[in-house]
Specification:
The complex is a heterodimer of chains A (114) and B (111). Chain A is mainly beta. Chain A is built from no helices and eleven strands. The chains are: A mainly beta (114), B mainly beta (111).
């Protein structure tokens, strides 16, 4: 039972480079999320999706784009990486229900921008 | 925007003692709250949740208390063990499927 899987686990980029972080979940969850976590801080929501083909902005969306072409996958893209985007990125997913449901998290992608 | 915060950034307790981690939230319309545990190098793990129509919920060795009057949430861990050492986050549901997280409290359990 894999749960939420993030790829890659570590990456170092140069300023201006682009890359895509992949999140895959095998729990048939409708909702998926991308967060960033900086030292000494909680998780901040970048973008989220309430279903296949839909995305929405979170608290800190600037500099990122996302796509949800398949229900099980949620991609986070950095078109032109900046040092301020050095962070740990977490993907999460949850069921859509008449009542709220907790999120299930991956183990993170550690991204450094030089 | 609305935010969730924590009173104590670091809490040290002796093994076997009870731990209490606090959280203040600011959105009075939030109706669902979650506590997560995050170990080093891992993603947050669900511990316990509570809905706004409750003021207390118990799990295995953990209890969450909700005081809507003062917008306060707490996590109580009974008989704290070394394996409980981690960072604990509260999360507030501000709209369907959307959560805001506090900055976290680090729990250090001394043997």
């Amino acid at each position: 039972n894999a749960g939420v899987t993030q790829t890659p686990k570590f990456r170092v980029l140069k300023t201006g480079q682009s890359m895509t972080l992949l999140c895959a979940q095998d729990m048939n969850h409708e909702y998926m999320y991308w967060y960033r976590q900086d030292p000494g801080m909680g998780l901040r929501l970048i973008h989220y999706s309430v279903g296949e083909g839909t995305t929405a902005k979170g608290e800190v969306p600037d500099g990122y784009n996302v796509s949800r072409l398949k229900k099980q996958n949620f991609l986070l893209g950095l078109e032109s990486a900046a040092p301020s985007q050095t962070s740990v990125y977490f993907c999460a997913s949850s069921f859509r229900s008449y009542s709220n449901q907790p999120q299930h998290f991956g183990d993170g992608t550690r991204l450094s921008i030089l | 925007g609305e935010s969730v915060g924590l009173h104590l950034p670091t809490l040290s307790v002796q093994e076997g003692d009870n731990s209490i981690i606090n959280c203040a939230y600011s959105n009075s319309a939030s109706d669902y709250f979650i506590w997560y545990k995050q170990e080093s190098g891992k993603g947050p793990q669900f511990i316990i949740d509570i809905r706004s129509n409750m003021d207390k919920r118990q799990g295995q060795r953990v209890t969450v208390l909700l005081n809507k009057t003062v917008k306060h949430l707490s996590l109580q861990i009974a008989a704290t063990q070394p394996g409980d050492s981690a960072v604990y986050f509260c999360a507030e549901n501000i709209s369907p499927g959307k959560f805001y997280f506090g900055s976290g409290t680090k729990l250090n359990v001394k043997p």
